[in-house]
């Protein structure tokens, strides 16, 4: 069957785009810091470079303008003349003076004299403006680099979900794993069933979300994720899959969105990993291969078998049948 459009990709990216915002787009500017953090890296780097380049050129032009209006450029080589900024002859020298001041390099060759009150005021303005720009842009880059999105890439989900019996009950199962030795603190998993339906009143809901119970009452949704775990949803009378059989699975259209959340042990930041399973990725009558083995003094996980399944005898009927 041709792969249909997903609500959530396998890598966790949500296929939702917001359009025709109208006047509501101004809300992005009211929260400019979050807007910059959410941008892609290439736009962040471009804004970072442009902001500093423009600020440097503007401030250097202001220092050059003070020297030009005072006539310092024409008498800079006169030892008896006291300029606003010593040894500023042209725009490049004014630019170098600004860089030395902003970066606190201070070579000592160019400096402000005490007979330049406008230069002192500009120096104070430059210091305040430079601190604000540095705090905003560097803070934005730091937050973006410390985001735990890359940590989510080391959390694995099985490529397919399976339906088979466990403890005499028909269950929908999938597997999750953590590739790093560092743990996910307070890891919790949730599942949403995305499926179109029509209400008794005739209202059509194209992307109705329904919660799948993966152990809320028993605490099975709280994971100790030190080794791959198989997450189980029991199909019973309260499950939306109560009428699902092997035959009806071929004609169904649904998507199961899996959300794994936890706190990164090394940074203390909350991390979220997502994936989804469509009806084509649900294997009826399959079970996951074991990946754990006992070695000399430790347990070994074989991730080469993480996605592997094998067939097991499973009734082709629904729980209702």
From TrEMBL:
Task: Spell out the molecular function terms from Gene Ontology.
Answer: G-protein activated inward rectifier potassium channel activity
What's a single GO BP term from this record?
A: potassium ion import across plasma membrane
Q: Which residues form the Inward rectifier potassium channel C-terminal domain?
A: 155-320
Q: Does the keyword ATP-binding apply?
A: no
Q: Which residues form the Potassium channel inwardly rectifying transmembrane domain?
A: 8-148
Instruction: Give the membrane topology.
Output: Multi-pass membrane protein
Q: Which domain of life is it from?
A: Eukaryota
Q: What is this protein called?
A: G protein-activated inward rectifier potassium channel 1
Q: Which organism is it from?
A: Eudyptula minor
Originating gene? KCNJ3_1
């Amino acid at each position: 069957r041709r792969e249909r459009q997903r609500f959530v990709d396998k890598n966790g990216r949500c296929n939702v785009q917001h359009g025709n915002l109208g006047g509501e787009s101004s809300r992005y500017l009211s929260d400019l810091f979050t807007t910059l953090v959410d941008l892609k890296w290439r736009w962040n780097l471009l804004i970072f470079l442009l902001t500093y380049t423009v600020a440097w050129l503007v401030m250097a032009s202001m220092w050059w303008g003070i020297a030009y209006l005072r006539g310092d450029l024409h008498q800079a080589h006169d030892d008896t003349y006291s300029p606003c900024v010593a040894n500023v002859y042209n725009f490049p020298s004014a630019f170098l003076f600004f860089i030395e001041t902003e970066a606190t390099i201070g070579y000592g060759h160019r400096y402000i004299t005490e007979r330049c009150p406008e230069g002192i005021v500009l120096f104070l303005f430059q210091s305040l403006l430079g601190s604000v720009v540095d705090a905003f842009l560097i803070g934005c880059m730091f937050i973006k680099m410390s985001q735990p999105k890359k940590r989510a890439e080391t959390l694995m989900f099985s490529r397919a979900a399976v339906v088979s019996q466990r403890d005499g009950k028909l269950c929908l199962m999938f597997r999750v794993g953590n590739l790093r030795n560092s743990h996910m603190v307070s890891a919790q998993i949730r599942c949403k069933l995305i499926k179109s339906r029509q209400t008794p009143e005739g209202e059509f809901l194209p992307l109705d979300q329904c919660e799948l119970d993966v152990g809320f009452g028993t605490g099975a949704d709280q994971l100790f994720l030190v080794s791959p775990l198989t997450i189980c949803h029991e199909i019973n009378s309260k499950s939306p899959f109560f009428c699902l059989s092997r035959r009806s699975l071929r004609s169904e259209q649904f998507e199961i969105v899996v959300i794994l959340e936890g706190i990164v042990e090394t940074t203390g930041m909350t991390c979220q990993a997502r994936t989804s399973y469509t009806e084509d990725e649900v294997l009826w009558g399959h079970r996951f291969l074991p990946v754990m083995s006992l070695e000399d003094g430790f347990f070994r996980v074989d991730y080469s078998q993480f996605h592997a399944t094998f067939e097991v005898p499973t009734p082709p009927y629904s729980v209702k049948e």
